[in-house]
Amino acid sequence: MEHDHAYKLLFSHPQMVADLLRGFVREDWVQHLDFSTLEPVSGHYISDDLREREDDCIWRVRWGQTWLYVYLLLEFQSTVDPFMAVRIMTYLGLLYQDLINAKALTPTGKLPPVLPLVLYNGAQRWSAAQNVAELIEVVPGGLERYQPQLHYLLLDEGGFEESELASLRNLAAALFRLENSREPQDVERVLNCLLDWLSAPEQRELRRAFTVWLRRVLLPSRLPGVELPQVIDLMEMKAMLAERVQEWTRKWEQQGIEKGLQKGRQEGRQEGRQEGRQEGRQEGQAELLVRILERKFGPLPPAYQQRILTAGSDDIWRWVDRVLSAEALEQVFD
Fold first, then answer.
1. Secondary structure (H, E, C), 93-150
2. Where are the domains of the chain?
3. d(CA 204, CA 220)
């Protein structure tokens, strides 16, 4: 719940929403939006059904002579919702009903366009259908015209590469980089960017929102059990990280490895219950071990990669168990 509130605090700032649209909705029509008109949709336009969805944000922005509405759904579930497209269709139906009741129509009397956008930060990559039509059974010829068609835009934070995000001067990209960070030094690099980009006095509240999210959500998830000092600004956050970076790096890495081990064993047990999946299971275990080793020791020499890929499950798990205590790569295998 803390994550939901902290994210909503970040996306209560128009600059965050503008950067999300500019940087990640890569379509020509975005260039015609007047971002100076961005404003949150007030409770006057939203029914109780939508107001109760505390983890969602609704904005509107001028697009020519009409308003474009942006329905931003913040998804923090640990698992992918296979019927997300149905949820989106329901929420948009409620939003359109509210706009009709408020007579918030276009100059021609039509409904305004809405961009449904799902922002997801789960560990596993998103695999659910992005169009409700994909969830409906194929029907005989002619009947398909009566089936709903609604597509939402998915932004899966973990699916972006660091090189792609680091090249953008973009606040939403900075948030994604922080979510994907593997060690305190990664957070420091992004903090340097944020301090440069958010230096204006009028951006004080946005700096504060990033600070709250870092201290209450990101750092506790990476450093469970570590007592964090009270900080109220990004500059103080940077100073705190610089002071404790060596102490926290080891704990940060260990936490990431332990999460990887736990997830790998769970996946291995689940797949092990399925007949005929032995080969796929071993490939998954090998990939997991390679990722853990590269996180701790850096890129693996080809000889070690080949050794892992040709090993059996018993060998792989024996090497996995040695990772936490090993000080050098050789100690894992020898």
1. HHHHHHHHHCCCCCCCCCCCCEEEEEEECCCCCCCCCCEHHHHCCCCCCCHHHHCCCC
2. 2-160, 181-273, 280-334
3. 23
Which letter, b or e, does each residue of 287-311 get, where b requires 16 or more Cβ atoms within 10 Å of its Cβ?
Answer: ebbeebbeebbeebeeebbeebeeb
Beta strands in 189-249 (DSSP E): none
Q: In this structure, how many other beta carbons lie within 10 angstroms of the beta carbon of residue 135?
A: 16
Are 119 and 75 a contacting pair, CB within 8 Å?
A: yes
For residue 162, the Cα-to-chain-centroid distance in whole angstroms is 13
Q: How far is CA 113 from the centre of its chain?
A: 25
Average model confidence (pLDDT) across the chain: 83
DSSP state of 232: -
Place of tokens 């020499």: 301
Dist. CA 232–CA 212, nearest whole Å? 8
Q: How many CB atoms lie within 10 A of CB 64?
A: 11
- Cβ-Cβ contacts under 8 Å for 177 (sequence gap 6 or more): 162, 165, 166, 186, 190
pLDDT in tens, 126-149: 999 999 999 999 887 888 889 999
Place of tokens 């609704």: 58
Q: Is 70 in a helix, a strand, or coil?
A: strand
pLDDT in tens, 13-43: 999 999 999 999 999 999 999 999 999 986 5
> What pTM does this model have?
0.73
Residue count (the chain): 334
7 phi-psi bin (left φ>0, alpha ψ -120 to 50, beta other): alpha
Cα separation, 334 vs 320, whole angstroms:
13
User: Is residue 280 exposed (0-12), middle (13-18) or buried (19+ Cβ within 10 Å)?
Assistant: exposed
CA 310 to mean position of chain CA atoms: 34
> Which helix (H) or strand (E) segment is 56 a member of?
strand 56-63
Identity of the amino acid at 88 = I
Q: Which residue has the tokens 């064993």?
A: 265
